[in-house]
Specification:
Elements (H helix, E strand, L loop, with lengths): L1 H14 L13 H7 L5 E2 L5 H4 L2 H9 L3 E2 L3 H8 L1 H10 L7 E5 H7 L1 H12 L3 E5 L9 E3 L5 H9 L4 E6 L3 E9 L6 E2 L3 E5 L6 H5 L4 E4 L6 H17 L5 E9 L4 E7 L9 H8 L4 H15 L4
Parallel strand pairs: 1-2
Antiparallel strand pairs: 3-6, 4-5, 4-6, 7-8, 7-9, 7-11, 9-10, 11-12
Family: Belongs to the D-alanine--D-alanine ligase family.
Keywords: ATP-binding, Cell shape, Cell wall biogenesis/degradation, Cytoplasm, Ligase, Nucleotide-binding, Peptidoglycan synthesis
Subcellular location: Cytoplasm
């Protein structure tokens, strides 16, 4: 998915008149950046190094400006329990949750811990790795009997599991961009999925999900969504571009699921959908973000 995002962003930037060179994240990257130093880097890498601050930290070490969030804030947003705790402390609604490492289940007995989890949070539950992207390993658990297998699946992607109350409602994503003096929210995108779960397959298989932008919600709710995404962006110290994933529950409350520092840019991704709905061009938007990164200068 990172390659698809990268190719699409490169093509969009070239269409906007930007001289683009494409690099993959491998053992040659640092040497290439030193030898052919760019004016700035636009990161289109999902999961792992692209979102946990690793690549950002290397760019900061090299003194190369980049589009995106600084490394410390990337790490904060990447760790879902940490981000959720900060959101909750600030008064932003997020589904109730518990995060536990694999060692806890092994030491205390998996079944007793799972029973306590259900007693506290109820069913259905959303299980997901505590760190990760693209909904890898995430799944809805409707019955106690499904929990052990779901836990094993989650632990294939991380050492800890985040279990949160599954919220029924309208799933929405709100992109925030820093292309002017103040961050601004683009039109919220409503996600309609045939089987009701926006998992990895639904995210990257054309035709599986239908997007409505702006979301089919009343004006007041749309405004609350945008305000919530802006508040999360500022609270977590994000920069240039972010995407807040949320659910508007049956009572009309905006409940934040997670915040992404490197939103997808593929043909099935949400950020390009919001950009089009705002009457903008993806290449021109990122060209403006690159210019801001250059004027901002390096980390050092």
């Amino acid at each position: 998915m990172s390659l698809r995002s990268g190719r699409r962003l490169a093509a969009a930037l070239r269409g906007a008149g930007v001289d683009v060179r494409e690099w993959d994240v491998d053992g040659a990257l640092v040497a290439e950046l030193r030898r052919d130093r760019p004016d700035a880097v636009a990161i289109a890498l999902h999961g792992g190094e692209g979102e946990n601050g690793s690549v950002q930290a290397v760019l900061e070490l090299l003194g190369i400006p980049f589009v995106g969030t600084p490394a410390p804030a990337c790490r904060r947003a990447w760790d879902k329990p940490t981000a959720k705790a900060e959101l909750a402390r600030s008064g932003i609604d997020t589904p109730d949750w518990v995060a536990l490492p694999h060692t806890t289940f092994r030491a205390l007995g998996a079944q007793t811990v799972l029973d306590a989890m259900v007693d506290r949070l109820g069913l259905p539950l959303m299980l997901k790795p505590d760190q990760g992207g693209s909904a890898l390993g995430a799944q809805v658990v409707a019955a106690r009997s499904e929990l052990p297998a779901a836990m094993v699946s989650c632990l294939a992607y991380a050492d800890s599991v985040l279990a949160e109350q599954f919220v029924t409602g309208t799933e929405v994503a709100v992109t925030v961009v820093d292309d002017s003096d103040e961050p601004r929210a683009l039109p919220p995108v409503e996600i309609e999925v045939r089987d009701g779960v926006y998992d990895y397959t639904a995210r990257y298989t054309p035709g599986t999900a239908t997007f409505h932008c702006p979301a089919r919600l009343d004006t007041e709710t749309l405004a609350r969504l945008e305000e919530t995404a802006l508040a999360a962006h500022r609270l977590l110290g994000l920069r240039d571009v972010s995407r807040t994933d949320a659910v508007v529950d049956r009572d009309g409350r905006v409940q934040v699921l997670e915040v992404n520092v490197s939103p997808g840019l593929t043909e099935t991704s949400l950020l390009p959908t919001a950009v089009r709905a705002a009457g903008m061009n993806l290449g021109e938007l990122y060209a403006a973000l690159i210019e801001r990164a250059i004027s901002r200068g390096s980390f050092r």
